[in-house]
Amino acid sequence: MFSSEGLGDPETGFSHSTVPDPGSGVSVPEIIRKKRDGEKLKEEEIRAFVRGVTKGTLKDGQIGAMLMAIRLQGMGAEETLALTREMAASGRVLEWPEKWRGLLVDKHSTGGVGDKVSLPLAPALAACGCKVPMISGRGLGHTGGTLDKLESVPGFKVSQSPEKMEEILETVGCCIVEQSQELVPADKALYALRDVTATVDSLPLITGSILSKKAAENISALVLDVKFGSAALYPTLESAQELAESLVSVGTQLGISSVAVLSRMDEPVGRRVGHSLEVLEALECLEGGGPADLRELVTTLGGTLLWQCGRVASVPEGAARVAHALDDGSALRTFQAMLQAQGVEAATARALCVGSEDERFQMLGRARTQEELLAPKDGTVQQILALPVAQVLHRLGAGRTREGQAINHHVGAEVLTSVGQPLRKGSPWLRIHHGSPKLSDGDRSALQAALILGDPFPPRSKVAKTIFPQTPLKEAGSMGRPERPEQEQNLGAPSHRPADSKPVGPGRDFP
Fold this sequence. Notes:
A five-stranded mixed β-sheet has the order 1-4-5-13-14, sandwiched between helices. Strands 6-9-11-7 form a four-stranded antiparallel β-sheet, with helices on both faces. Strands 10-8-12 form a three-stranded antiparallel β-sheet, with no helix packed on it. The chain has three domains: 14-74, Transferase, Pyrimidine Nucleoside Phosphorylase, Chain A, domain 3, CATH 1.20.970.10; 98-348 and 462-499, Pyrimidine Nucleoside Phosphorylase, Chain A, domain 2 (3-Layer(aba) Sandwich); 367-454, Alpha-Beta Complex (Aldehyde Oxidoreductase, domain 3), CATH 3.90.1170.30. It is α/β, with parallel strands linked by helices. Helix content is 42%, strand content 14%. It has helices spanning 14-17, 28-36, 43-55, 60-73, 77-88, 118-127, 146-150, 162-171, 185-196, 203-217, 237-253, 275-286, 292-308, 315-327, 330-341, 346-354, 357-364, 386-398, 441-448; strands at residues 105-109, 132-136, 174-178, 221-228, 257-264, 272-273, 369-374, 379-384, 412-415, 422-423, 428-434, 451-454, 463-469, 502-504. Helix 11 links the parallel strand 4 (221-228) and strand 5 (257-264). The longest helix is centred in the middle third of the chain and has 17 residues, at 237-253. Helix 2 (28-36) runs parallel beside helix 4, helix 3 (43-55) crosses helix 9 and helix 5 (77-88) packs across helix 11 (237-253). It contains 19 helices and 14 strands. Keywords: Glycosyltransferase, Transferase. Homodimer.
């Protein structure tokens, strides 16, 4: 990734790359040694490392060694904060009109199967008066990406300049775009090497990657959907909670009102998985319908953000406001306006947002084969495992194994039953959309293993726990930005905090 030209002695490469920033006097091998041996890094050492990464003066081997040292030894809270702050400062920080102060919000999900929450959430929040400059990503591995879903809509452009983003936010209230080359270049460089050095799951590196981008967005409030379960990055609630606490603590100290919602990811979100199919289900949600678990996530996350930025007095009140925006059509109208603002022809946007499902399929297209799987025996649906479904869809062309790989937007799955519903042997329970003449025996077997039948089992809420910050924003670092208005600083909110929520403070060390 980084050129070795101009790095000095070709035998050692240390004459220039030992000191990443001229005049800093910091030795990169010494920084690596300190972290390798479990010592705490100083802020200037972290700054020197990040600047060396950004400027391309370090070798891949040095960066990889540092990443592995962080992965094995961890970072304390102060180190993680410094890393995140320096990564955010490595590129451009977006600037917004002063009149939007306190209204700029965003959401981040750690990734899941069928997770189309951003599509209805962004316009619903905009319909409630927020400004939502949502910078999203693409799918890699078995999880889908928001940008891939939106690119299944003909004409939708995910690449927008900061100036165009401001124009869309002024007229529509929300946009969903890709990360520009100007934002957080250090993250791009580090993420590419994390992927090939087995350090993707490092808690401080995840924290820095997520929050540096959000800090560069210059937002007021952030809600984090941290997923756990068999189809998530973190399999257990306990491991996901550790990440959630790190994100909330560091985000708060960066001057961003941050709350994390821990949600289950053993089963798909909703009943449709796959890019264009998830757009269809998002439209159902925007019409006030759709699956209950999708609506629960949209209203919970949206209600939390409305409370964070001071537009409502409690999270339940915020959830009700978001639900009303879904039910009265204002969120759907905002989504239609966003589609047009980001390149979709007016007739296409109108057909998607007010047309029948057949008309929507005409706009989005459909896979040439729809194949149903039948229940192997009588029983009650206990669970439908997300991971096997996602893995099969990935093999059929819905996912990518490398960055930039083309995908098939029409490949997907429709779940035709739900948890707690009785099934008779031979009844269809899953419909697969794909481009092959028929599914292979191996794929059929893998999909059938996703259906768990047994005794009646009550469905559970997707939301398991909420993590709130303990330290008010006025006591936290803010990257030099002004303090939030007084109503945004009331982050304790004991009067309406759920019983299973947990406050965190900024002083904890995260291994």
